[in-house]
Amino acid sequence: MLKSERPYRVVLRGLHSSEDTTEIKEILKENGHEVRQIVNVRHRTSKEPLPLFYVDLEPKSNNRDIFNLKYLNHMKVTFEPPYKKKKSSSAKGAKGLVIPKSVSQTIQMRQVRRRPPNQHL
């Protein structure tokens, strides 16, 4: 997908999770924004709906104006850019750490650590 075809995603905070997404879509259309999709964000583990919505806008020149909207459906809201996903610790790699491949290597590493610094292998 080309960058010009990708939706412009923002996060909507401040509305209850039971709010009707078609109503939000209509209000944003009245403000000059063409909405591709609105999704209620759910908690990662419990899957319960959160008071957050992902709003995907069609790529247009006025997309940044959505951050100036303060009220939606008589409720005070904020539009924010989405957070970057954090990489897991396993994806980052072990920087400077030696990861033993077997139990025997673990025992050898412990023995090396116990030796005084002036003794060599």
From TrEMBL:
Residues 21-89 form the Pre-C2HC domain. SMART domains: PRE_C2HC. InterPro entries: Pre_C2HC_dom. Residues 111-121 have a biased composition (Basic residues). Residues 82-121 are annotated as: Disordered. This is Nucleic-acid-binding protein from transposon X-element. It comes from Eumeta variegata.
